[in-house]
Design goal:
It holds the Pfam family HSP20. Belongs to the small heat shock protein (HSP20) family. This is Hsp20/alpha crystallin family protein. With 148 residues, the chain is mostly beta strands. It has a domain at 41-138: Immunoglobulin-like (Sandwich), CATH 2.60.40. It is built from one helix and nine strands, in the order H-E-E-E-E-E-E-E-E-E. The strands form three sheets. Strands 3-4-9-8 form a four-stranded antiparallel beta sheet, with no helix packed on it. It is elongated. The two termini are 35 Å apart.
Length: 148
């Protein structure tokens, strides 16, 4: 079991992030396309780190790789694209519309430990995986201690 440092203010930061996201979603400019609501949306992203690399996995179901752009600029990684509306049926034929369509953008500040020239991205079954390898000099290493 891993030991996790207790951070009493973390819940407040999480709450603030959720409120910011709520207000952002509420105040976004909505457009209509063929009678359907289109809005900016934010894909879910998991970030995982081990000794070798940092890995981001973004859920982008129903998209083609050509609709997704991954860019690195000023020590920031940006993922953006647009999920196009698939159907042209009239809105009144639907009982419920829950899937989101429209533009999205996510940005992540890259730590100095990332080897930016070795970053790789792949897209498989609706999940974009970006691998950010760590520079050799920043990877953890073991040192043997000799007793004299």
């Amino acid at each position: 079991m891993a030991i996790v440092k207790w951070e009493p203010l973390k819940d407040f930061v999480t709450f603030q992030d959720r409120m910011n996201q709520f207000l952002s979603d509420t105040l976004n400019n909505y457009e209509t396309e063929n009678g359907r609501l289109v809005q900016d949306w934010v894909p879910a992203v998991d970030v995982y780190e081990d000794a070798e690399a940092i890995q981001l996995k973004a859920e982008l179901p129903g998209m083609e790789m050509r609709e997704i752009e991954v860019k690195i600029e000023n020590n920031a990684l940006e993922i953006r694209g647009e999920k196009k509306i698939e159907q042209t049926e009239k809105k009144e034929n639907y009982h419920r519309i829950e899937r989101v369509f429209g533009r999205f953008s996510r940005s992540f500040r890259l730590p100095n430990t990332v080897a930016q020239d070795k970053i790789k991205a792949k897209y498989d079954r609706g999940v974009l995986t970006i691998t950010l390898p760590k520079r050799e000099e920043t990877k953890p290493r073991s040192i043997t201690v000799q007793v004299e």
